[in-house]
Specification:
The chain is mainly alpha-helical. The protein has two domains: about 90 residues, no CATH class; about 120 residues, no CATH class. Helices cover about 60% and strands about 5% of the residues. The protein is built from 13 helices and two strands, in the order ααααααααββααααα. The chain has a two-stranded antiparallel sheet.
C-alpha cells in the first residue's frame, strides 16, 4: 500500500531504520536446515531456492511448517513447495531488482545469460557472449557488493572466478526480466552496458537476448524454469 519505499530516502527514514540482514554463513544455514524434519531432497531444494538469505529461509521454514501440520514429511511435494515459495516471495525478488542500480542489473543479466548458455544446446552456434570474464574482473567491487548482499555467490578456480546466483529463483526471475524485455527496453540499456563492454560485445549480448525472444526457442527457454524444479529431482 502506498508508494514504493527506498532505503535512504524519504518517507522511509521518516518512519523506519533500514537495516539489511547479512546472509547467513554456511554453518548457520546447515544448523537451520538440520532442525527441519523433512526428506533430504526437499532440504536441498530449500537450499537452492533460498540460498543464505535470512528472509528467504524464514519463508521456506514457514511454508514447510504449515505443510507439516497436515502432511507427513515424506509426502511434501517438492515442485508444489517451490511454487508456493515463489508465490510468497516474488515481491522480494522484485525489490532486489528494483533497488539494484542499472549497472548492477546489467551485471546480474550477464551472470544469468552466462549460466543459461549450457542449458540451451540447440542455440549453441548463435550463443556467443564473448569473454565476459574480463568484464567481471573489472567490476570486482560491484560483484563483491552483490555477494555481500547475498544475491550472488562466487567460486574461485585456478584460473578464474565463477559467479552464480545464491538463489536459483533469483536467477529464474532475472531470466524472466530478460525474456519480457523488448527492443526499446534493450536500447535504453545501451549506455549502461557500454560502461561495461565494447560496442562489439554489446552486439553479441543483444543477439543472445534476441535468441531468447524467438518463438522457435520457446521450448528451450521453458525448460529453464523446469530446471529449477529438476535440480532436486535429479538427486
Amino acid at each position: 500500500i502506498g508508494p514504493p519505499l527506498t532505503p535512504g530516502k524519504s518517507p522511509w527514514y521518516n518512519h523506519y531504520l533500514f537495516l539489511p540482514l547479512k546472509p547467513f554463513t554456511e554453518k548457520e544455514v546447515a544448523n537451520i536446515l538440520s532442525e527441519l524434519a523433512t526428506k533430504p531432497k526437499l532440504l536441498y531444494g530449500i537450499r537452492e531456492i533460498a540460498g543464505n538469505n535470512p528472509a528467504l529461509l524464514q519463508n521456506a521454514g514457514f511454508i514447510l511448517y504449515n505443510k507439516l501440520q497436515f502432511q507427513e514429511p515424506h509426502n511434501v511435494d517438492i515442485e508444489t513447495f517451490v511454487k508456493d515459495f515463489l508465490a510468497r516471495t516474488e515481491h522480494f525478488f522484485q525489490e532486489i531488482w528494483r533497488l539494484s542500480t542499472k549497472e548492477e542489473q546489467a551485471i546480474l543479466m550477464l551472470i544469468a545469460l552466462s549460466g543459461l548458455k549450457g542449458r540451451l544446446p540447440q542455440t549453441k552456434k548463435r550463443y556467443d557472449l564473448g569473454n565476459i570474464d574480463i568484464i567481471f574482473s573489472q567490476k570486482e567491487q560491484k560483484l563483491n557488493d552483490l555477494e555481500e548482499r547475498g544475491i550472488i555467490i562466487s567460486h574461485t578456480t585456478e584460473d578464474q572466478t565463477i559467479y552464480s546466483f545464491a538463489s536459483s529463483l533469483m536467477e529464474w526471475w532475472v531470466i524472466q526480466e530478460i525474456k519480457n524485455s523488448n527492443d526499446e527496453k534493450l536500447k535504453n540499456c545501451d549506455k549502461t552496458f557500454l560502461n561495461l563492454m565494447t560496442h562489439r560485445q554489446l552486439d553479441r549480448v543483444k543477439n543472445v537476448i534476441r535468441v531468447l525472444w524467438k518463438n522457435e526457442n520457446k521450448e528451450d527457454v521453458a525448460s529453464i524454469v523446469e530446471w529449477i524444479y529438476g535440480l532436486v529431482n535429479a538427486l
